[in-house]
Amino acid sequence: MGMARKLTAARLRYCGLEALVDDAKLIVSELVTNAIQHGGGAQVTFTMTVRDGFLHLAVHDGTPCRPVVRSAPDDAECGRGLFLVDCLASARGGTWGTSDDGTTIWCCLAVPGGES
Predict the structure, then answer these.
(1) Sign of CA dihedral 78, 82, 84, 85
(2) What is this structure's pTM?
(3) CA 1, CA 84: separation in Å to the nearest integer?
(4) Per-residue confidence of the chain (116 residues) as pLDDT tens digits?
(5) What CA–CA distance (Å, rounded) separates 39 from 66?
């Protein structure tokens, strides 16, 4: 997950999208962690693109499972990942979801100024 966060930050800075670095790093970390912990696939693939005014983040693990936002108890050490993704996406004018077959989870964040 550390490498995915570093690559995300470096690429966004290179593209002049520093304003999205912190949120995107957290989202990537959560999506990749979920893929590793809950996916049964042998390979996890992460993609990041900017198009149509949105930063698109996607993690594919090949497992047809649809993740859902859970409500974690206050003292729980895990279980809030997708809740965080949902909150960050909403705060950035975006959304998240899964592919029709459930093998890819994605998140979109609006790019400041609508750059594409």
Answers:
(1) positive
(2) 0.87
(3) 16
(4) 688 899 999 999 999 999 999 999 999 999 998 888 877 767 899 999 999 999 999 999 988 877 766 676 666 566 578 888 999 999 999 999 999 988 999 999 999 987 65
(5) 10
